[in-house]
């Protein structure tokens, strides 16, 4: 299988390097051959060639079977008014590869649940799979200025087809889990949310009679996540609401450094391309190069890559088991050590290996 | 002074009735005359006259010096595809009265901080004033359908003038508090956010050199609120982000039933009309009529009404002091009793009186 590596900025290169060691160990143990190639993205690509998603990178990604991304961005490229910005690379790769679904599992590890900002008895046992729409909504709506630049607009927009495909994917995932789907919108105010809600209701009724559907308003959901996170199974929502809610939810486990994500398109059978796997955390430029970065989220991304990207569930389970064992036996990088003794980036990966 | 009362739906009438008793006590003690008049809004108005904001109500509000609202909505009127919906009354009254600023103080009471879903040591000492833009953004953008109804859109839009007035108000409030302003946007993706950020930067530099300004992305803010809520003073943001973030933040104190809000327009000197004061919580139809509703948020709204609406700071302080004393001495309605003995709606107000 061909795997495209996009290390990106800040701690990106360090954590991708450790994940590569894990992929190589999987290749050895299970007798696979992974062809790995490295490409520029984000700030690093802006510095090198003036483009956060160079044509070569895009081409290599399209030819790959799966993509592993570190992180992009940093203060150096932070001006929101700059013509070229690192996150444009992210947005464009999502769009160009048709990665319309972002999956983020939020499942606090028992060994770390004390690190949650929430009370332990609220958060323990939480097991949510967020499914965020990733190539539509206001992110990709028509935008610009009017009135001599004094008014700015950007259109929030969803079509039935866009809602159908993400809801189908989420409902299928719910069938493989607890059988419950929560759809989040703002249907009391927004027209795209009203369309979202009616399409979701129809798809579930017509195609997934075995999945229980609940509609929740986005403001209410922001509250529920803090007082009854255990009540949710699969949560599907639009691009902007998903951005905010998944980041809110990412605090629940108390260990952002352990959360992976997958961005998927249509299945291969329907002409879809490779999935993209990346940790939820950012590029943390302040600790880049210090050996403090936690590689475990990226290593857990390789597990998602193996399962959802390459169809290798046993290999994925082996990686996940090794990470849980390492954490269970007390291996802690600085971010999850709560002031106690911690290991370096490489030592954490060693423990997994 | 003339005060328009809009009890609304569910528990609205019960809690407004208790707040009225407090207003009358203030009138007696401080020798004021408050002319109170009651008007229809929300579901109750739909049932009575088929309009969630009847012309009579709007007229009475425009003639009042301040408005006290209970809550609107309930399952009976919940269909998001219905042509007439209770929340349209809320959105229209905001727009018609030019109530462009929604103020929500989030300050957990020490006596109740144990009820927070967050760990006590994270949340204790939090004191945030949210200032949410309330008459612009995607809430009031052009909306509709295309492609035979198969695509829905709604435009997120902000003008420089809209951003300037809300930022000025927030910065002035920061001057009277800790001198720090956090502006929340999504400037890395949205054009209206880029305008928001540049206008905010300019207004602060030109007019408020004494206020410290920080820009935070909305997804990051959703995280910060859970791990370092104490770091924020005044937070200003747009309509949609404010809706989500203030509801998230409303969970921090662990006592939603104690949170008031104020919606304000331009000052009277600039032709502005009355402010509108309402609790953050909803209409809780499930407990309407049972005597379980907590009237304290609405009573705290009368304090904001006295201070920000009628310019009576001593009267406001008296009400706030009485509420804090009541809670401090152990008065608890069911929602904040944590299973222990609780008082009724009327008994809670008695304690304040
Ligand atoms: C960097 C930014 C454009 C991006 C987003 O908003 O989608 C990020 O926050 C994310 O969630 O992956
Ligand atoms: C009822 C709804 C339209 C309203 C809003 O979104 O503004 C409510 O959530 C609020 O925050 O006052």
From TrEMBL, chains A, B:
Domain Isopropylmalate dehydrogenase-like: residue ranges: 2-352
EC number(s) per entry: 1.1.1.85
One example GO MF annotation: 3-isopropylmalate dehydrogenase activity
Site location (Important for catalysis): 139, 186
Complex and partners: Homodimer.
Family listed: Belongs to the isocitrate and isopropylmalate dehydrogenases family. LeuB type 1 subfamily.
Name of the protein in its database record: 3-isopropylmalate dehydrogenase
The species this protein was found in: Alienimonas chondri
């Amino acid at each position: 299988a061909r795997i495209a590596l996009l290390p990106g900025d800040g701690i990106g290169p360090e954590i991708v390097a450790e994940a590569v060691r894990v992929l190589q160990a999987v290749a050895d143990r299970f007798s696979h051959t992974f062809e790995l190639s490295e490409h520029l993205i984000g700030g690093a690509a802006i510095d090198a060639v003036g483009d956060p998603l160079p044509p070569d990178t895009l081409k290599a990604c399209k030819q790959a079977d799966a993509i592993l991304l570190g992180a992009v961005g940093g203060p150096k490229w932070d001006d929101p008014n700059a013509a070229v910005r690192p996150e444009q690379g992210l947005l464009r790769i999502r769009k160009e590869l048709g990665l319309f679904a972002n999956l983020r599992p939020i499942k606090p590890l028992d060994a770390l649940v004390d690190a949650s900002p929430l009370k332990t008895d609220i958060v323990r046992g939480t097991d949510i799979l967020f499914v965020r729409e990733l190539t539509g909504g206001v992110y990709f709506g028509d935008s610009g200025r009017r009135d001599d630049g004094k008014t700015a607009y950007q259109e929030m927009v969803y079509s039935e087809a866009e809602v159908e495909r993400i809801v189908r994917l989420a409902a299928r995932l719910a069938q493989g889990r607890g059988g419950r789907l929560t759809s989040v919108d703002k249907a009391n105010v927004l027209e795209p949310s009203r369309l979202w809600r009616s399409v979701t209701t129809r798809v579930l009724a017509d195609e997934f009679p075995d999945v229980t559907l609940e509609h929740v308003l986005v403001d209410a959901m922001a509250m529920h996540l803090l007082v009854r996170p255990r009540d949710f199974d699969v949560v599907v929502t639009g691009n902007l609401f998903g951005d905010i809610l998944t980041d809110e939810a990412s605090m629940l486990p108390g260990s952002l450094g352990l959360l992976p994500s997958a961005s998927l398109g249509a299945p291969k059978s329907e002409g879809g391309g490779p999935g993209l796997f990346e940790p939820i955390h950012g590029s943390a430029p302040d600790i880049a190069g210090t050996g403090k970065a936690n590689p475990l989220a990226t290593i857990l991304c390789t597990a998602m890559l193996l399962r959802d990207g390459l169809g290798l569930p046993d290999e994925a389970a082996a990686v996940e088991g090794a990470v849980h064992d390492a954490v269970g036996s007390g291996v802690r990088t600085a971010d999850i050590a709560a002031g106690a003794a911690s290991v370096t980036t490489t030592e954490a990966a060693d423990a997994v290996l």
